[in-house]
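Section 5.1 Outputs to date
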Amino acid sequence: MPVGVFQPAHLLIVLIVLLLVLVPGRLTGMGRALGQSWRALVAGFREGARERPAATLPARACPRCGVWGAEMARYCTRCGATLG
């Protein structure tokens, strides 16, 4: 292998060293912002899950087939009868 020839691995190492030397403040700031965004996202999901009430619909049986459905439904989901 000739002396003085850079291979892709050498260039990658030089690039990483340059990034660590020249941009440490930006990297920590980006990491901090990413962590804060993630925590806010998780907190939002948890808060939304707490605020959502359990969906309970009153139900009634179909007069034709006896399948229980929502009280406000117009038609039976099994036989298609009108639920008046």
